[in-house]
Design a protein that fits this description.
Length: 177
């Protein structure tokens, strides 16, 4: 799809949402994960696509698939890049390159439910997250591109969810053995 077609599609959706804001609220496609033994989990999308995760050998996995934590970083990087491409299209900017890399640092003690030396539980999630964006667009001022990236990242659903720490409602069903 061309940048112009993307911009047209975005304007069409925005026009509908201005008239009917409630039309923008919808349930997202669920991600259904099924444990397959050992540390392997297969997550399915309603479209039939699936993603296999595993853990590194050090944590009992085979280490031959991506980890769930990597998927979090992949979601952040790909969502940011998508939103930046959308904003560029909306502004008529022709990108010649766009890359996003999400990095984080985690403490494995949190995954294992351990506490630190003071007895405080170690968080299981990342301690810090960094998003690095590299882009170019011939004839576009660097400051305009920086502003485009910053504004886009504020509208990135995955980045927004991570920054606002959306609460997770946990529901547990126990099947008969």
């Amino acid at each position: 799809m061309t940048a112009q077609a993307i911009a047209t599609a975005m304007r069409r959706v925005e026009s509908v949402l201005l008239k009917r804001p409630q039309a923008g609220i919808d349930s997202d496609a669920p991600a259904a994960a099924r444990w397959c033994g050992d540390m392997r989990v297969v997550t399915h999308h309603a479209s039939g696509m699936q993603v296999v995760t595993d853990m590194p050998r050090e944590l009992g996995g085979a280490g031959d698939q991506v980890s769930p934590g990597w998927l979090l970083r992949a979601a952040l990087a790909s969502c940011a890049a998508t939103r930046i491409a959308m904003a560029a299209a909306a502004e008529g900017i022709e990108l010649s390159a766009l890359e996003a890399e999400a990095c984080s640092r985690s403490d494995a003690r949190g995954l294992l439910g351990m506490a630190d030396e003071n007895g405080t539980p170690v968080p299981a999630g990342p301690n810090d997250v960094e998003l690095r964006v590299t882009l170019s667009a011939p004839g576009v001022d660097a400051q305009r591109l920086r502003a485009l990236v910053e504004a886009s990242c504020r509208c990135s659903p995955v980045g927004s969810a991570m920054e606002s720490a959306v609460p997770v409602a946990l529901h547990v069903s126990v099947m008969a053995a």
